[in-house]
Amino acid sequence: MKLLKWFSFRGKGDKSIARKQQFIAQKISRRYCFSAVSLFALQSVVALLGSLDLVIPDLPSPIPFEFGRAIHLGLADLWPLIGTMGMVFFFTTAELNREIHSPRLARWQYWIVMLFSVSIFGTLALRIGNGREYLEGMPIFYAGICLALALASYNLIRTLLTDKRNITPASAIMTVGIIFLFLLLIPNTITYRNPITDEVTKFWVVHLWEEMAFELTSAGFIATFYVVSGLAPRAQVEKWLYLEASMAVVGGFYGTGHHYYWIGFPAVWLAIGSLVSVLEVIPVGMLAIMTYKGLKSVKVRSNREKLTLWLLLSSVFYHLTGASLLGLFITIPWVNLYMHGTYVTSGHAHLALFGSLGFVVLAGCYYILSRGSEPTLKGYKRGVLAVFLLNGGLITMASSLLVAGFIETYFWRILGIDFMEVRLLINPYLIMRVLGGAMFTLGDLLLSWRIFKAWQTTKNKKL
Ligand code: HEM
Ligand code: HEM
User: How far is the CA of 231 from the centre of ligand 1 (A)?
Assistant: First the structure.
């Protein structure tokens, strides 16, 4: 009975649909998820060495710090992107209970996104880059990623249009998310002489990808998972989904305005951005309440669903705190004036990008790669330990960064003390960040290993 529950999904109109087959798209989505988790494992190791380099400056390293940082930032965007592609294929077919339009295109898309992502990391390791923070690879490689996203958009639109009456909100919202990822990246495939145009187009990836497009793809997955696991009734989930989607689009577009003012836009953007940012907290708050109510009423879940839930709960927590509330605090113009670009930003970046988005993608990837294999109690406990280590590491890293950032703000920006003197003051907190990073890396490797084991157990199973 339990097994049937995994494969069944309450479709539109709350009719239970028993899943008899595994769609080819769902098989293909496994390679996306596997690659995403592997890149995540690599990211922590590289980042830990980077953080060590900041406190032991003469540490011998084949790659200079600035290029290591560039690879770290590239990974921070690309592994969640690759995982998201897999999740969207998997959960769209689950929602529609139908194959995607072209599995062959999805396979091509995988090789294209991997080729260009690896090219970005490889060339950066060879010290070839353009110095454009977050998008430091050669523009041609981003054109390749764009191509992969164009294929995904086409494939998903054709899938939805095959049977228009059967489109569900979650499948449509995930597709819109992918289309936005594509559209927002296009302007970043060329270079601009005007520094404001350059910054704005970059913000569409650094901020709008995260605050809008990924919000849509993640919301679709969360909604699907909540219904499948019985955490919330479909009607309630869909209400939240509509609100979340509209807030992500409106809030994302206008909320990004809080960044525009500082790069030369008129002051009205400061007001628009700050006011709309306040609204962005509402859907996250609603998700937290829905989760709380669901957890109170639903008791029995499989270990696989429980581990997925641990990852998702972590994401909801950081979405509310590190992304929304801390984001809101640093958006206040009088705060941003002094805190801009300090370690506070780095604290927020880690809490939001990994805490909120990274955890969702890991939840989705784990759920997909473990499909058809229930972890043993020991395996489940190790999985939970990994989630705790990730959380402990992230909180230690982020709080050290926040304290370092407050010191920078007060002593350097407000009191005007020399930068080098302030740098010495923050050194202990950067050492604490290394310790947090070590705990995080341990959790990362442990979780990746668990996911690898799940992948291994299920890879030849006919589901
Ligand atoms: C072992 C875990 C990690 C360690 C030790 C670490 C370390 C670092 C270091 C040394 C930097 C360079 C600038 C700075 O000093 O803050 C950095 C920046 C950054 N990292 Fe990480 N990182 C880790 C994990 C992650 C993860 C998992 C993500 C996201 C998926 C991430 C996203 C970022 C971002 C977005 C920045 C740029 C922040 C800014 O704008 O200042 N990091 N990290
Ligand atoms: C999941 C959602 C979010 C993610 C993944 C995210 C990620 C990031 C990242 C990576 C940065 C660093 C950018 C850089 O170094 O140039 C950043 C900066 C910033 N974020 Fe967010 N963010 C999120 C949500 C929010 C929200 C909801 C707000 C406001 C309500 C916000 C306000 C800010 C501000 C003001 C900065 C710039 C700080 C500075 O001036 O140095 N963020 N965010």
Answer: 33
Count structural domains, the chain. Answer: 1
Closest CA to 204 of 177, 178, 179, 186: 186
Residue closest via CA to ligand 2's atom 6 equals: 352
| Ligand 1 neighbour 47 (Cβ under 6 A) | yes
Given this model, what pLDDT does residue 2 score?
Answer: 39
In percent, the amount of the chain with pLDDT more than 90 equals: 73
The residue whose C-alpha atom lies closest to atom 23 belonging to ligand 1 is 47
**Which of 202, 279, 297, 282 has its CA nearest to residue 240?**
282
Confidence at residue 15, expressed as pLDDT on a 0 to 100 scale: 40
* CA 78 / ligand 1 centre spacing (Å): 14
Q: How far is the CA of 360 from the centre of ligand 2 (A)?
A: 18
| Ligand with minimal distance to 205 CA | 2
Is 8 part of any domain? no
Nearest bound ligand to CA 431? 1
CA of residue 259 to ligand 2 center, whole Å: 9
pLDDT average, residue stretch 111-116: 98
* Whole-number pLDDT of residue 131: 86
What's the CATH number where 207 sits? 1.20.210.10
Alpha carbon distance 364, 21 (integer Å): 20
Query: How far is it between the farthest Cα atoms of the chain?
Result: 68
Ligand 1, closest atom to CA 45? Answer: 1
Number of Cα atoms under 13 Å in the Cβ half of residue 163:
12
Which-ligand-closest: CA of 316?
A: 2
Report the pLDDT averaged over residues 311-318: 95
The pLDDT-based confidence of 423 (bands split at 50, 70, 90) is very high
Crossing angle (nearest 10°) for helices 214-228 and 359-369: 50
pLDDT in tens, 37-77: 999 999 999 999 999 999 997 888 889 999 999 999 999 99
Report if residue 4 sits inside a domain.
no
349 lines ligand 1 (CB under 6 A): yes
- Domain extent, residue 372, equals 19-458
Residue 463 lies in a domain: no
Kindly state if the Cβ of 76 falls inside 6 Å of ligand 1. Answer: yes
Mean pLDDT computed over 319-327:
94
Query: Does 462 score more than 70 pLDDT?
Result: no
> In angstroms, what CA-CA distances link 199 with 95, 135, 206, 339, 340?
38, 11, 10, 19, 15
Q: Per this entry, what is the length of the chain? A: 463
Whether 11 is in a domain gets the answer no
Is residue 463 very low, low, confident or very high in pLDDT (cuts 50, 70, 90)?
low
